Fold this protein.
Amino acid sequence: MPQPQHARQPRTSPSSAGRETASALEDAAWRLATGRAGAVVGTRAVLAADPRHVRAHALVGAARWLDGDLVGAVESLSLAARTAARVPRRRDRQLVEVVCAVAGGTADRAGLVAREHAADFPDDIVVCLLLGRAAEIEGDDRVWSTVEGLLRAAAPYVAASSSPRLVGAHAGLAALAAAGRGRPDAASLALAALELDPGSGTAMHALVHALESRGEADVAHGVAARWTAEHHPAPWLRDHLTTHGVVAAAG
């Protein structure tokens, strides 16, 4: 009597696995750059398959820093830094340096590395979000100026790309940089970015700052509250927008 054959499980080809990893990391970076929740979700499978994946650890460290989890950020960034020292991929090493610098409160250093990084990797605009957040925390207009320069340099690449996500993320970051520098066109840039991507937390963040700078804090609070209820942004951004609302109510 013939023995039953066990069904073989389909194997994922190396090229397929590579594409899945790249897609998961691209999604994580996009979520970070646009203030969306779930940035670390896709990296879990990447790290399960490769616990030493430098970029995955760097993105998780960035997400934890943004959320205020400094212990978790240090853990992820320490793993990333140790592995990056042995990895020849400059793209990954430089991202680790940028995240470590902003998390360590040295935004100037982060800006220097980011400029080098952007010269070869203009699509990696998640660094602009990290620098922008550092500029906001430190109140440093020079860092905002660096962010604007990086986004200007990336603009031709973004315009030539076929990625709506990249175009939307770039528009939201450009609006946030304009708001950070107090430019009068910040609100219009933010609204245009929200037309491209209604779920962009970066664009909403920019709009709130732009409206507040025009003395329209109550309007900003109302818009942000409705948007947050609908789109459920990353915890750090949700809390940040809520703080703006509390300040507006107290004022």
